[in-house]
Request: fold
Amino acid sequence: MPDIIRLLPENVANQIAAGEVVQRPASVVKELLENAIDAGATNIKLIVKDAGKTLIQVIDNGKGMSETDARMCFERHATSKIRNSEDIFRIQTKGFRGEALAAISAVAQVELKTKTEANALGSQIEVEGNKVLKQEACSSPTGSSFSVKNLFFNVPARRNFLKEDSTELRHIIDEFERVALPHPEVSFSFFSNNNEIFHLPATGLMQRITGLYGSGLKGKLVYVEEDTPYLKIKGYAGKPESAKKRRGEQFFFVNNRFIKSGYLHHAIVNAYEGLINPEEHPSYFLFLDLPPNSIDINIHPTKTEIKFEDEKTIYALLRTAVKRSLGKNNLAPSLDFNTEQSFEFNYSKDKVVTAPVINFNPDYNPFTNNGSKGNAGSAQKDYANSLNKNNLKNWQSLYTDYVNKGTEETEQETGTQHNLEPETEQEKLFETGTFGNGQLKAFQLHNKYIAMETAAGLILIDQHRAHEKILYEHYLKAFSEHAINSQQELFPNTVELSGNDYALVQELQQDLKTLGFDIENFGKNSIVIHGIPADLSGMNSAEMLEGILENFKLNNLEVKLDKRDNLSRALARNTCIKYGKSLGSEEMQLLVEHLLSSESPAYSPSGKNIIIELSIHELEKLFKKR
Reply:
């Protein structure tokens, strides 16, 4: 039998390795930005074109590389940070595997210009598919400039799997934020297709957070700090009232490296227990400083997952630190053992203390109709007399309904009663549920449900889901039939967004216009809202748009939807009537009529029940069980 096992060619092995490190343009951005940080840069510029598919360029003012290092950095497992196996557990830098540049150059065309401060000339090197095409001296400022062009040019299958530019750009923004956030002392700038997305000067942590996610966060965060010999914690946690239904700004950094940890996230959720609803998520930006030998960061190629030597201690300290910070800012329940509130009163020597006076009618007797005096007794007497009269009137007919009911039950047992099974068509549910004037016989339960009598029994309608379904179909039809008119704002509203939300608005801008929004870009992650859908006039345009974006992203987490379908759902969910709103009879009638004219009125856009029906038989069974 001939031998069948052989070594892979170098270029194939490199492309396979690149699949673990370089999954999309954002992966390249992450590796190059982290290398710039490790090089000691204080000013970093990121430039992308076509969401990184055409160009990704990172320019830094770090220490640069010599001619030999510039060539060696593209070799697999070539690193300046590891000399032996023990060094892996003393790592303080972001990169150390020596895989990134080799993996990137295996699937792209890379150009590097670099120079150290000691050298007069720098080095320029071009690599394509791991093959060095050119290396020569060049004029260059101190630092490095990496240009990655035509990503996946030699792996067309991988390129075909990339999403549309707007989606890939949002992934790049995510990676940019994860590197820029823990390094407020470094100046960052970010350009996409010659448009400036971020300009972040060197500043403090809070200024860096607001620079990335908008100034609106400034009043919604509390400072968190804990200093122990084993662990140091600092950062910010969101106030309970700022919690969202989607996991938004939630960041853990261990030794300034972004990580993902469900275990530590649970510690934060535990600290908010009783302060937010279970389905809500708080924001947090927390930095943990641990001895390098107490963690293992070498368990995943992207280094976003790490192992802790003592997870339970970290969990307890993190939970305590957040809970204490919320308590210090009067955001969590607390007890003051120094003061008993029930004993506090204002005392004055000149004030005369008198016993409270209780007024009552000594002649009042609820069991008699006479002997009462005063207004209260007279009113009680009148009410008692009317009650007695009403009780004595027509007393012979007291059991009429009971006798009739017994007859009906006898008919049911013998099978001679009329058929009360519900109709198959939902519109026929309501054929007997009307008054003489044609209005629906309906009423609200707890300002949440609409209860109605029907030919078959009783139905309950969830008013929130019903209105959401009506609006969803209304907005969805706007894309295929006709655009919704826009109502111009008297005073245009300027809204500052996070970089990710700003990119999302750019992606949805044309579709938002179809739905009646008139939005103009204002630069630096800001937009101006000139108009909103005409049928939503009077609503706060900024809050409405932010809610739509939040619901749009939340829908993407739950299920992959068509963009217009998702936008219609997000707008409907954000603008429909909420639980707790009192509705008049005409409003209930219109709501039910529009619901029945929609497609599949029994279910909301997310597949939840809108209508629940109880037949007369089901109701009778409930009473028979008692």
